[in-house]
């Protein structure tokens, strides 16, 4: 049976899943650093909300160590980190102490204790085909206006690439600032893509600007200072 657009809208409404370009759902939750409200935590800053399946697990431990090692890089970009799992505050405290000893880092960011799955369900982090009692490995990047800008999910056995998350932040912040786009595999210092022309006149003039390198009338790149 073919699923209709109306069926899809009903699914989304039931799920209340965060969607790109829309305001993320607000919540209050207990963390190892006290109770927080997302909208207040998010105010004036980017936020990376990332979930992990469980405390005291090897892949998650490497990820937390990786995030902690890059805390200063996130701070330079006005980004706050916010972890989550379905374990208790006490479990978070004990596990964080072990990670700090294991990786010789200090974990400064809060970790949500989502024992009742409230935030996990709100952000569609429980996928029954994977587990009904653990959150998946997900990343949500939220801008200072509370808008969801990126969401990523990862298999249970595959750790996240922290450098790629930083690259995503760099690209999104540059796109916002310069009103451009970034090509595949872009990194800081690379040329960027100019939005395609909207009129025939603009298309004709492309390639006449010495600051642009045009492959086709719709595909022009230029250097940009970061």
Q: Which key terms come to mind for this protein?
A:
single chain; alpha+beta; Glutaredoxin; 2 domains; 3-stranded antiparallel β-sheet; about 35% helix
Protein topology:
Elements: H1 5-15, E1 28-31, E2 34-37, H2 38-42, E3 46-51, H3 58-69, H4 71-76, E4 79-85, H5 89-103, E5 111-113, H6 118-122, E6 137-142, E7 148-154, H7 162-178, E8 192-194, H8 200-205, E9 213-216, E10 219-222
Parallel strand pairs: 3-4, 4-5
Antiparallel strand pairs: 1-2, 3-6, 6-7, 8-10, 9-10
Helix pairs in contact: 3-5
> What strand line-up does the widest sheet have?
5-4-3-6-7
What proportion of the residues form beta strands (DSSP E)? 15-25%
Q: How large is the count of helical segments?
A: 8
Shape: elongated
Major sheet summary line: 5 strands, mixed
In CATH's first tier, which class of the largest domain applies? Answer: Alpha Beta
Based on secondary structure, the structural category is alpha+beta
Shape-level CATH architecture of the largest domain: 3-Layer(aba) Sandwich
Percent in helix: 25-40%
């Amino acid at each position: 049976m073919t699923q209709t657009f109306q069926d899809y809208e009903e699914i989304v409404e039931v799920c209340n899943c965060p969607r790109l370009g829309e305001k993320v759902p607000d919540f209050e939750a207990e963390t190892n650093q006290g109770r927080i409200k997302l909208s207040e935590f998010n105010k004036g800053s980017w936020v990376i909300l990332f979930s992990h399946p469980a405390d005291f697990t090897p892949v998650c431990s490497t990820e937390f160590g990786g995030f902690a090692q890059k805390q200063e890089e996130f701070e330079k970009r006005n980004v706050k980190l916010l972890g989550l799992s379905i374990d208790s505050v006490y479990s978070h405290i004990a596990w964080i102490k072990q990670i700090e000893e294991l990786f010789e880092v200090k974990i400064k960011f809060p970790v949500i204790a989502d024992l009742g799955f409230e935030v996990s369900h709100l952000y569609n982090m429980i996928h029954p085909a994977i587990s009904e009692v653990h959150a998946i490995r997900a990343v949500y990047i939220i801008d200072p206006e509370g808008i969801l800008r990126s969401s990523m999910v990862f298999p249970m056995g595959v750790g996240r690439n922290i450098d790629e998350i930083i690259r995503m932040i760099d690209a999104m912040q540059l796109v916002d600032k310069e009103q451009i786009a970034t090509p595949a595999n872009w990194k800081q210092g690379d040329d960027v893509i100019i939005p395609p022309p909207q009129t025939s006149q603009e298309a004709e003039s492309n390639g006449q600007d010495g600051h642009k390198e045009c492959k086709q009338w719709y595909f022009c790149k230029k250097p940009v200072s970061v």
